[in-house]
Structures are given as structure tokens and as C-alpha cells.
Amino acid sequence: MKKRSYNQACSLATALDLIGERWTWLILRGLLTGPKRYKDLLDQLPGIGTNLLATRMKDLVWLGIAEKSGNGRQAAYQLTAIGEQLRPISHALINWGRNFPDHAGADAQSRPQWDMLAIEAMFRPERAGGISVVMEFVLSGFVFHLAIRNQQCRAVIGPAVSPDVRITSDSATLIAIGNRETTVQSAEEKIHLKIDGDRNAFSLLFDLFE
Amino acid sequence: MKKRSYNQACSLATALDLIGERWTWLILRGLLTGPKRYKDLLDQLPGIGTNLLATRMKDLVWLGIAEKSGNGRQAAYQLTAIGEQLRPISHALINWGRNFPDHAGADAQSRPQWDMLAIEAMFRPERAGGISVVMEFVLSGFVFHLAIRNQQCRAVIGPAVSPDVRITSDSATLIAIGNRETTVQSAEEKIHLKIDGDRNAFSLLFDLFE
DNA sequence: CTGCATCCGCCTCGATACTG
DNA sequence: CAGTATCGAGGCGGATGCAG
To answer: What is residue B1's predicted lDDT score, i.e. its pLDDT?
Structure first.
């Protein structure tokens, strides 16, 4: 059973042979928000065949892009250093995909972790010189936080130890504010947005992100 | 006849719906080295079905990623502004693919235009401050040139108007020199490398590129 | 219940032949 | 040269089974 390959002496073709198949990038999207168990990956990949996920994971581990820690019911997959190198590329692809905002239909699936990675992608390091801040988000009940330091931004699942600000909202509201379709004040009045802590830290959200 | 889609409200999934299918990135690779006719694209895509290339091109044009100029046998495809935004992403994928130098088998296909794009990908703008130089390459008979200015590098098919240096060689030799597996002097003695013009400009090749 | 493996129908792909 | 038509092969999607 030989794997299909472009069979070209080209690094782009090599990359596509390894991570260009259907679902692979979306598996990586799952791993880019932290280690995941098989079931957690499945939950973020609606429509994938369970066998396909299993073979993809075997390939990714074999290639040294992901690795498996623990086994049995505690087994979890995480990115290796080489897999982690795909993070900026995924950011770029996400930002490119925003050229087509109307692509997703009304019946499209959604997961808060996808928004989390999208926020990380929108970070603009060149605007973050000298800024150090931790923002905690509660988007439709899903909790994560952004740690911004040294012109780097990393999104992590779960609450922050000591956040400068906690933002309770949903992704649609934040997008609407970002697009100037609504105001912070209006969103707060409609209880679509709640800001706890340093409001200046909250306003950084619109300075440091696209 | 509906197209297969991940159907997710996620910009990464959107991007993959549009350019994540088999062959699409390699079609873009062809267009990233300049406008191409149907036949020229085919030549760079060994193994693709002609029907598949036709449908892919129709999709890319429909999406506004590529556009068709002229028609009949003079028709040519080129990238739109949105398609051009994929250039840095292709560079990043190429550089990531170089983590797996042994992937391509001995029977792998190769085309000089792939090397041309790979060289463009290896350019390090942060090392090119204040440098302005034009290098012409003749790799195994294929002619292109690099124009470096304002910390940008663009590879263009064909000879340069007034190159600072002309480098006649082949990609294997340049890679070997870059990896310190051979020296410039040795390559010149074996007539695997010929340098016409400013030798200092040639040495920039190893300063400005990875 | 999680973490897969097996099986099967279907859709996409790959190759060739053919047309304007 | 620039595609279209056709058809066999193989990867994918969904359901099911099963071991730890």
C-alpha cells in the first residue's frame, strides 16, 4: 500500500505530500491550541471518518510532526518542534481566508477554539512593542486567555493565573465591534459584552489585533 | 453538482475549501513564477489529469485568485492581487518542506522554475538592508534573474537588462556550495559554475539567502 | 467510554482518447 | 494548443464492531 505522492524534487511538493491531504491542516489546527486526545480532535473535525483520523495521526507521528504522550485512555497528541513551525503558516492561511468572509454558509459548524486561533492569527507584533498584558476570554462559556509579551502573543485554553482583564462575550459580538458595526457601549448595554478589570487592557485588543 | 466543503465557520477551513485540494498549490506555484498558458502549467504538473487542471483553473478564476487574459491559443493565466497574497505563504511552506530533504526519491521530477521559486523563498530581507543588486542565473540552460531592492527579492523568468553578475551553473551545485559540501573554487574548476561580472555580487548570494 | 480497525458505497482523481 | 468526454482505480465518508 504505497502512499500517493507528487514525486517531485520540490520542497513545496514535499510539504504537500506530508500535510497537503484532506483534513490534515484541520487536525493541525486542533493541535495548535494545545495537546489533544483522539476524541477531542474528533469533536473539532465534524465529518471526518474515524479511520481517516487514525491513519492521519499515525502519519503525522511517523513524520515527526506530532507525537503521542501517554497511552491507553490518557494518550494525547501534541506538536513537535517541526509541527510547531507550522503555526505562523496557519496564521497566514487564516488571514488569507478572511478575504472570503461570505464563504461559510449559515449551516456551517463552529467551535470556540477556532476563534481562539483566529484571534491569535490577527495579532500584529509590530504594534506591541513594550506591551505586556494578559487577557482572559469567556466566549459563549469557553475560557481561554491571551498572553502578550515581547511582541509575541500566545492563546492558551483555560483561565489565566492573574489576568489584567476578563472579557465575557461571544465571537460574533467581538467581530461586530472590530468591524465598527457596533460599539463597546452598545454591546455592554445589551449584555453581549462584559469587561472585568483594566478597561485599558481591553482597548488594547483593538490596537494590537487586525 | 455541489463542491465538497468542510462547511465550517473558520477562515482556515475556508482557505482549504478554496486552495486545499490536490494539485491546487502546485498550480499556484506555476503562476507564482509569472503568467502561464495552459500548456506551460501542464508541463510543470507531471501526472495531473488535463480535465482536473481545467476545472481547477475555472475554480481559481471564479474565486478571483487567478484571471485569464486573452483567449484562444494566446490565453494566459495569472494571479490576481488576492492570489499574489499567497506568495509569502508559499515561501513559508517551501522553507518548512526543507525540514524533510530526503523525502523526494531518486526518480523525482524536477523543473528549474521550482528551484527559482525556492531561491526566492530562501531570501532573508533582514540581511538585505541598503543592498540593491541584480543577479542573472543560467541553471542547466534555464535563464532567470533575481532583482533585490528595498529588502525585497523577486525572481523573474528571462535575462536581466543589466545584471551585476551572471551565474551559470545548476541547482545541485549551488545547493552543494550552500551546504558547504563543496567550494566555489572547486565548482569553478570542475566547470560546474561560471561567474561573469561582479564576484562580490555573487558572494551576496550566500549572505542574503538561507 | 475511548481509541481505533473493518467494511462498503461513493466521489474524486488519473490516464487516455478525442474535438474545435 | 486548449481544453472536453469517458472510465477504471483509489481515497474518502459513514456505519459498525471490538478491545482495553
So the answer is: 66
Q: Evaluate if the CB of A7 falls below 7 Å from strand D.
A: no
Closest CA to B27 of B1, B69, B58: B58
pTM > 0.85: yes or no: yes
* Chain B residues 106-135, Cβ below 7 A from strand D: none
As ranges, strand C nucleotides with an atom below 7 A of a protein CB are 1-7, 11-17, 20
CA distance A150 to A173: 28
Strands (E), chain A: 66-69, 76-79, 133-139, 142-149, 152-157, 165-169, 194-197
Closest CA to B97 of A10, A8, A23: A10
Could you report how far apart the first and last alpha carbons of chain B are, in Å?
Answer: 46
pLDDT number for residue A1: 61
**What does the pLDDT average to over B76-91?**
98
- Residue A12 is nearest to which of B20, B25, B108, comparing CB atoms? B25
Q: Which amino acid is at A17?
A: D
For chain A, first and last CA: distance in Å?
46
From the C1' of D15, which residue's alpha carbon is nearest? Answer: A49
Instruction: Render pLDDT for A28-42 as a digit per residue (tens, 0 to 9).
Output: 999 999 999 999 999
CB of B203 closer than 8 Å to CB of B167: no
The pLDDT value recorded for residue A71 is 74
* Residue A45 pLDDT: 98
Residue type, A91: H
Query: In angstroms, rounded to a whole number, what is the distance separating the alpha carbons of residues A150 and A129?
Result: 7
B179 touches strand D (CB under 7 A): no
